[in-house]
Fold this protein.
Amino acid sequence: MPLILLTNDDGITSPGLAALREAVSPLGQVVIVAPDRDNSAVSHSLTMHRPLRVVKQAESVYALDGTPADCVSIALARILKKRPDLLISGINSGPNLGDDISYSGTVSAAVEGTMYSIPSMAVSLAGEPPYDFGPAGKVAAKLAVMILARGLPENTLMNVNVPGDTAITGTKVTRQGRRLWENSIQEVFDPRGRRHYWIGGGTPVRDSGKDTDVHAIQTGCISVTPIHLDLTNHEGVFHLRDDWQLDKEDLT
Ligand code: MN
């Protein structure tokens, strides 16, 4: 029976995690190791300046007072008795499209799994509240069956976004688009009249080329993006080496 590790960044009480657990439980032995509170947008941070505590909440359910990446590394090293066959992170409340991926705790947990050669998938519900995680749970379970049977390419995770507020019209294998936020820094004042800045909200500015994750969701399709751990721009290597002749420069 396959061993499936679940985590998320919305915290262990998130209904998206409960829906994911329900959907994939028939596929194998499921263990949850998840942050004890919301860790959205913590990216791949590791907690190194204080010890971490694991609280066993129920059989195969562990809460950790750390980040999603902490959860994966401690699950693999200390909690699980064998290597998991699959790691799934999610289901996130809200999309992880384009530039969101750089900030996402959900995706970073899957990056951490991939670093340890565990086939890993991040699943996000690209809708607005109130969220219905049911359809995304079904998508996650179907993809989980495929990954368990076929594995994933080396150093590659699967980033899945499921439309939340429209009828699903199909599935698209996509590339990462661009999705920046305009007016996402709000100016607020505390009771003493001091100025603060609060990051959040705003309007997404999109590069929604037809082959992107952003476009797939805009058109009501499930988006599946293979994400590689290697962030190198391989054309950029040739550009710096051949056009700049940077290897030949004396930089000392
Ligand atoms: Mn989140």
